[in-house]
Every structure is written in C-alpha cells, then in structure tokens.
Write a structure and sequence with these properties.
heterodimer; A: 482 residues; alpha/beta; 11 helices; globular; B: 450 residues; ten-stranded mixed sheet; 24% helix
C-alpha cells in the first residue's frame, strides 16, 4: 500500500506542466526597471489621454511611499521591482480586421492552449479576448456583441473608444491607493479587458479572457473592468497560463466589477499560472486585487475560482454589498502542491439592508505546500437582516503540507445572522478501502474523492471551464495522498 | 503609547536596585530580559493584529499609579468582604492589591508536601521548585503586557502539589482591589501540579474602590503526567476596571485541564490563554461565557499549541451582548508537523440583543499534519423567534421568555462545571446578571449599592 502510494506520488509530482512552452515571437519591450519614465513611456506607447497618465503618475507616487504587505501566511522572497520589464507586447500590425492578421506564432500558441480564437468555431459560443504578455491580441465576436450594445474589447481600445465610461468607473472600486499591488498595477498596467453591458441586456454568450505571460523577465499587469448596467446579465470567464521558467515572474492584476440595479455578474476564473517545478524553483507570483460592488438594489455578483497554479497566490475577490437585497457568492477551490503557497479567500462587506452572501471555500494541499483561507465578513450597523453563510474546508494530502484558516467576522447589528464553519481532514482510510473493495484503484479512488469534494464549486463553473477545471484537479492531485 | 512605555520603563529602573538586592537572582535576570523585550515590542495597540479589538487606547486615557509594596492594610479585609459559595467549603486565599494578604487564615490539614503561599515567599523559600518552572512558558510569548508583568510583578499566589496528591477542598483565590487612587497592578501566579495529582481552583476578581484600575495578571500552570487541573474564574468587575489576564498552561502526558471563565461585568476584559500540549494524550478544554452590556469590551484570545501526537482540545466560547457592548473571540490553533491524530474542535456562539452591539470573531487554524480532525464554527445571531413564540403561546410573558432563552444559551457552559455547588452559584449569578440585578460590587459587605 505504502509503496504504491509513493509511486503514484512520484508520478504526480513529476508530471509536467503542460502549458510550459515558450512561443518565439518578436516582442516590443521597454527597458528593464521602474521609474517615472517607465510609466510615461507605457502611457506614451498606448497613446493615452492626459487624465490617464496623471492617474498612473499619482499611483506611482503613492506606490513609492507604500510597503509590501507582510501579513499573509506566505513566505515571499524579496522581489526586486527594478529587475522586471514592465511592458512587453507582441509586435503586430497596427490593426487587426480578421483572424488571418494575427501572427501565426501567436495563433499557434492559443491553438495549443485550446482557446477558440478562430471565429469559425462559432459552435463553442464563447467570445474571447486573448491577452498575451501585456497586450490584448484579439477579441472575437466583437461585432455580434456590438449589435446588442455590449462593449467587449481590450482595455486600451476602451480607453480610446469609450473614454467616458473608463474614466467614470476605473479606480472607483479599487482606488490606486488601495494596496501595494493595486498601486503598482495602476501605475504600470498595460492592457486588460473591458466589458459594458447596457441596460436590460442579457449577454447572449459567455465572455472570456485568456491571459498568457510569454516573454521572460516580464511582469504582467492587466486590468479588467466589468460594468453591468440596470437589469443586465453577463457571465465572464478568465483563464491564465505561462511558460516554465527558472526565475519567478510577477503578475499583479486588478479586476473591478460594478453591478447596477437588478444586474447580475458571474465571474469565473481558472488560474493555472506556472506553479514552479517540484523543487519550488520558478513559477508565477500572483498578487491580484479583485473587487465587485453591488451598487444597485437587487444586484448580484458571484465569484467562482479554481486556483491550481502560481508559486505564490495572494488573492481575495471581494464584494461590497451596497444595494439593498443584493446578493453575493464566492465559490473557490484552491489546490497547492510541491512548494506552492496560497493565501486566498474573500471579503463580504454588507452595507445594504437584507443583503446576503455565501462563501464556500475548499482548500486542497499536497506535497510541501501551504494553503490558507483568509476571509472577512463584515456587517455594518445599518445592514439590517443581513445573512451570511461561510464554509471553508481543507483537505490535507500528505504530512508535509499545511492548511490554515483565518476567517474574520465583524457584526455590528442585532438582526443579522452570520454562520461560519470550517473543517480540516484528510481522505480517510475507510473511504479508500470502500472504493478499493469495489474494484476502484487507489489512484482512481483519490481522484474520485477529490473531485467529489470540489464538486460543489466546479458545478458553478460554466461548462467549458468545468471540464478544464476537473482535468486540472486530476493532474494536480491524483494519487498524491499519503 | 510611547509615554506609557516610557513611564513603565522608568518605574522599573527606579525599582531595579531593590529587585537586585532583595530576592531571587534568577527572577531578576528574567526581569531584565523582559525589559529588553518590552522596549522592543512596546505596548500593543489597535495596529497590533492580536489586540485590534481590545480598545487598549481607551485604557490609557487614564493615568495609573504603581505601588510596589501594597501589602499594608489598616483594616481587616475579612471584616467587610466575603465571597462565599453556598454549600461549598473552600480554602480561601486572598490577594490584596496583588499581594499575598498577610492576615490570610492559615490553611490547615493540607496533605504532606503541599505548599500554598505568596509568590514572593516562594521565590526565596523554595528556589529549587520555583526556578524550575517560573517564567518558562511565559517567556516563549512575545507580548508587551506579559513582559510588563514579568518586569514588575513581585507577588501573587504559589501552589505546589507534589505527586500522588489530591486536595480534599477546592482552593478559592480572591483577587481584591481596593483603596484610593487609580492603580496599576501586576500579579503573578504559579501553580505546579506534579505527577498523578489533582487541583481545583476558583478565582474571583473583585474591586471595592470606585477608581480606574489597570490590572495585568500572568498565571503559569504546569500540569504533570496524569494530573488533573480545574480552573474556574469569575470576573465581576466595575465598569472602570481594565483587566488583562494571561494564563499559560503546560500539559504533560495524559494530563487534563478544564478552564472556564465567566465574565459578568467589567470595563475592558482581555483573557489570553496559552495552552501547550507537550505530552501525548493530554486534553485541554477551554470554556468562556461573557455577558456584556453598556459599553463593556470582553475580548478572549486562546492559543492552543498541539506539539505532539494524540492530543485533544475543545473550546466553547459564548457571549450575550446588550446595549453597545463589544465582544471579541480569537481562537488560534496550531497543529505542529508530526502531531498526528490530533483532535481540535472550536466553537464560538454569540447572541446580539441590540443593534449597537458589536461582535468580532476570528478563528485561526494552522495545520501542518495530515491525520487530524479539526473544526471550528462561529455564529452570530439573535434569540430564536420560533422558540420565543413557543414560550409565549404557553403563557410566558415576553421578558421571561427572553430570559429563559438567554439562560438556556448560557447553560451549555454551566454544564461543564462538575462541582455542583459551584454550578448552582454560577447559575444564580448568571440569572441575576441577566435580570440586571447584579452590580459589579455585589460582594462588598458595605452595602453602598443597595
């Protein structure tokens, strides 16, 4: 038994990161390091209006005064911010009209990743905005969406085409002074996705962005802004991969979501950045600020995330429930293996009356990894009759890993009900034995149990992602149980 | 805060010659080490993650005097103060303003080898026992208040129970704060229970003056192999008191500890419990009940360290809040690598009766071993409307029905007290507290509150 498990464990830890290839394409980079000149040059390259440059410079000034946060249960090696290339874009023709205009190498990359960039694949019914290194490469189905009045484009395009919307909403949820990484992103962000759903429109398809870090030594700093106007609905997905490299790369993103009256936004992430090799070398540092605002009454924001990649994850998708009767959900599976570290969770800030939130977090740790859930549920005095239910479970696979929970609950009124529960356990010998005696091998049994454990979250993902997430779980974990 | 820090450093420097000359040299070394730490760490404030809800700033809005030697008392305290537990015979030990009271009635018929005396006496009279245990566990923790206590504390209660010994009576420790002026008190207790012995202890805190008092207590309990320690604390302090209570418990193999803290009244109460499970098959149970109203702050912090395999820990903390009170609970549990087969369970329930009341809860599990069963749960809610309706429909008026439900909520904690007279006494206290009939000075025989 012991031997078989060791074998399986070895196989799993040695399984290669399948997205670890590098695409050889020309990139347009700015010199290494971060100075005011860097910020100006990024802004200049993107031909940005003055107000945006000012925003960047203010953020940069703020960033210089800030210190990297150290409260997370993470062991972050010192990051030299002067040793990073802050802007790297695939060289491309100025404008793209059809799929044929894309550099075939880039197209190959996204083909390998299985992203339906090709508009011929209408069957898949997903509109994709692909972001390579720092630049949005191609947004598909743009015209089809435009008919409905939906704007779905790269962030830089939005700055040029819809400056009013960008100016109004950018930084309104995550101000540049919010935290260290948000300030950094606000100063040097290069691109990202922008999405606006007009009043009364239900997006006819899933919107999706695929992020890819390709060039070495670069950081990726993208921004996503999603605005759902009154009575609208959108389901948005995001995926990420990176090549295998020995050095660590930095990814610091910002996501802002605004849901107006009666609007609903579903936001799903499958995060699969390169996690580093089995000695813990290399991998992406993933420091992300994601926040949504349920601005209007009866609005809803739901977060679903599957976190399997990154050497270090620092990520807390949060919702501010400002509108009365607004609802927010957070479903998360975070898997860590080898030397990965994750400190992730959510914040639910209840401000409006009758607001309700649900948190389901499933942590799975294997190898020598460390996996923490950190969350805050805050109910303000005026948030009468608010309701929260939180559950955060941890599954430990192996005796060298750690699983931690740090939930904060702050309640300031007497009509709200807040419940929190958490468990930590391992897969029991009985469960494995039960499967074995029904002819299921230990390896399959573990896959079965882990998938069952995470099912509550995976079921919330859009179909296309659910399949990928399930496969990811299998690859990351199967058999790694001691 | 810097001013406060400086003040206490100055106080210490004035006293250090006395400390060096009189008394145990080891203790003096600890004092100097603590001074270093205190200078380094300072006094925790709201920026300190562990003390963010305690309202430390509020404590230091007042100035406190420090009396290094408060032993003198001109009246016999026994004459105007009593704290009796009906139907229960106890050995009573009194600490007057932090010092072992010289008019304590001598305790008779103690089994051979048992020592119950003042800490100051013990550090000079029994250095061979004292030095082995004093400041061993407490020095592991970096906390400004603990350092402050180690620097300045000079007396408290010392109990030593040799192996294979069981006391026939419960010991009742009464901490009495009295006299004029705003006081800062630093008490230090040391309880040592050797192999296969048993001790139960009731601690009652009382304040008889109408001043602002600031109390920092440190208690170290060392529980030997197969021994049992039961610790019941009753906190009934006036609004002006600020109490920071630290209990360090070390458990050896097969030992059992029950700790129960009942917080009935107080200005700011902060209870820190550090339980170190350092012997296999040891089991610690921590209970707490807080009934907070006005703008009282009750903050409970527990830190359970599962160092070795096969240990168990249980925690249950409950609070009922009224007016604009604040209660906080932070429960940290660490399961060290290789501490397999650990079972750690934690629950925190809160009932909030008014919209101004504030509840903060922060469970914290850090687990580094895989074969464990750990869980924590926290709830914040109100009295069950269906249950209220059920009682009302059976002819019980609204006020009584609410009281019954609150009492039932509190009763879960009471059930953990296995000494019946004590349970009855505590149940009476809770009852009258919930009815608002228990003032902070109910044990004073002067009767000024009536």
């Amino acid at each position: 038994m012991e031997k078989e498990q060791d074998k399986v464990l070895r196989e799993v830890t040695q399984s290669e990161y399948k997205y670890g290839f590098v695409t050889d394409i020309d990139t347009d980079e700015i010199p290494i390091g971060l100075t005011e000149e860097t910020v100006r040059s990024i802004s200049g390259k993107k031909n940005e209006p003055d107000w945006l440059l000012e925003f960047r410079l203010k953020a940069f000034e703020k960033w210089k005064t800030m210190k990297m946060p150290d409260w997370a249960h993470l062991n972050i090696p010192e990051i030299n911010y002067q040793d990073i290339i802050y802007y790297s874009a695939p060289k491309q023709k100025p404008s793209l009209k059809s799929i044929d205009d894309i550099d075939p190498e880039i197209k190959n990359t996204f083909d390998k990743l299985g992203i339906p960039l090709d508009e011929q694949k209408r069957l898949s019914g997903v509109a994709v905005d692909a972001v390579m290194d720092s630049i949005s490469v191609k947004t598909t189905f743009q015209e089809a969406l435009a008919e409905k009045g939906i704007i779905f484009c790269s962030f830089s395009e939005a700055v040029q085409e819809h400056p009013d919307l960008v100016k109004k909403y950018m930084g309104s949820i995550v101000p540049y002074s919010d935290n260290y990484f948000a300030a950094l992103n606000s100063a040097v962000f290069s691109d990202g996705s922008f999405c606006y759903i007009p009043k009364g429109v239900r997006s006819p398809m899933e919107l999706s962005t695929y992020f890819r870090i390709n060039a070495g030594n670069t950081g990726q700093f993208e921004r996503t802004l999603i605005i759902a106007d009154e009575d609208s609905f959108v389901s948005y997905m995001e995926g990420c991969t990176a090549p295998m490299r020995d050095e660590n790369q930095l990814h610091a993103a910002i996501v802002e979501i605004i849901a107006h009256k009666n609007a609903e936004v579903k936001y799903a992430t499958v995060q699969n950045w390169y996690p580093g090799n089995k000695e813990g070398k290399g991998g992406i540092y993933n420091f992300v600020t994601k926040r949504g605002l349920c601005k209007g009454n009866n609005s809803k924001i739901s977060w679903v995330q599957v976190e399997t990649g990154s050497a270090i994850t620092w990520k807390y998708p949060s919702t501010i429930l400002k509108g009365d009767n607004s609802v927010s959900e957070f479903y998360s599976v975070a898997v860590t293996n080898n030397f990965q570290q994750a400190d992730t969770g959510t914040k639910m800030i209840h401000l409006g009356k009758n607001t309700s939130s649900t948190i389901i977090s499933k942590g799975i740790s294997a190898g020598k990894s460390s996996n923490s859930y950190r969350g805050l549920v805050k109910v303000a005095e005026k948030a009468e009759n608010s309701r929260n239910f939180s559950q955060c479970d941890s599954l430990l696979l192996g005796d060298k890993c750690g699983a931690h929970t740090f939930p904060y609950i702050e309640v300031d009124n007497d009509s709200s009900i807040v419940e929190h529960e958490a468990t930590t356990s391992k897969i029991s010998e009985e469960q494995i034995f039960y499967c074995n005696q029904r002819g299921i091998s230990t390896e399959d049994a573990i896959g079965l149990i882990v998938n069952g454990y995470a099912k509550e979250v995976i079921n919330r993902l859009p179909m296309e992602f659910a399949v990928e997430a399930q496969k990811l779980l299998q690859i990351s974990l199967e058999g790694s149980v001691g | 805060m810097k001013k406060v820090l400086k003040k206490y450093i100055n106080i210490y420097q004035d006293l250090s010659d006395d400390f060096a000359k009189n008394g145990n040299q080891k203790v003096f070394e600890y004092r100097n080490e603590a001074l270093k730490k205190f200078k380094q760490n300072g006094i925790p404030d709201k920026n300190d993650e562990n003390y963010k809800y305690t309202g430390i700033e509020k404590i230091f809005e007042n100035d406190y005097e420090y009396f290094p030697d408060a032993k003198q008392s001109f009246v016999d305290i026994n004459e105007y103060f009593k704290c009796e537990i009906g139907d229960m015979d106890t050995h009573v030990v009194l600490l007057s303003n932090g010092s072992y009271y010289e008019k304590n009635k001598p305790i008779e018929d103690l089994p051979e080898g048992v020592i119950i005396c003042g800490l100051n006496e013990a550090m000079n009279k029994y250095p061979e026992i004292f030095d082995k245990y004093y400041n061993q566990h407490a020095s592991e923790i970096n906390d400004g208040f603990v350092s402050l206590n180690t620097m300045l504390a000079n007396d408290g209660l010392f109990i030593f129970i040799p192996e294979n010994t069981k006391l026939n009576k419960t010991i009742q420790l009464i901490n009495l704060t009295h006299g004029f002026g705003n006081k800062s008190l630093f008490k230090r207790n040391l309880f040592i229970i050797e192999e296969n012995s048993e001790l139960s202890l009731i601690v009652c805190d009382h304040t008889l003056n109408n001043s602002n008092n600031f109390v920092v207590d440190v208690t170290e309990s060392h529980i030997g192999k197969k021994s049992v320690f039961k610790y019941y604390a009753l906190q009934n302090e006036p609004k002006k008191s600020s109490v920071i209570n630290n209990h360090f418990i070390t458990l050896e193999e097969y030992s059992k500890v029950n700790s129960l803290i009942l917080s009935l009244h107080g200005g700011i109460i902060r209870n820190n419990i550090y339980a170190k499970l350092s012997g296999e098959y040891s089991h610690v149970k921590l209970y707490g009940l807080g009934l907070a109203d006005n703008n009282q702050i009750f903050d409970n912090y527990t830190f359970i360290d599962h160092k070795v395999p096969n240990c168990k820990s249980n925690e249950l903390y409950k609070n009922i809040l009224d007016d604009s009170a604040l209660t906080a609970f932070a429960g940290r549990i660490i399961v060290r690598p290789d501490a397999q087969k650990t079972e750690a369970f934690q629950t925190n329930n809160n009932i909030s009766l008014t919209s101004g009341a504030k509840v903060r809860t922060k469970p914290q599990l850090e687990i580094y071993a895989d074969d464990v069963k750990c869980s924590h749960g926290a709830t914040i809610g109100q009295l069950d409307k269906d249950a209220l309706f059920y009682l009302r429909s059976r002819g019980i008026n609204a006020k009584e029905a609410r009281l019954m439900l609150m009492f039932a909520f509190a009763n879960d904690i009471l059930l953990e007290i296995d000494v019946e007279p004590l349970r009855n006494r505590m149940s009476d206290l809770i009852n009258s507290r919930l009815r608002g009939e228990l003032p902070g000075c109910s044990h004073c025989l002067q009767g000024c509150h009536k």
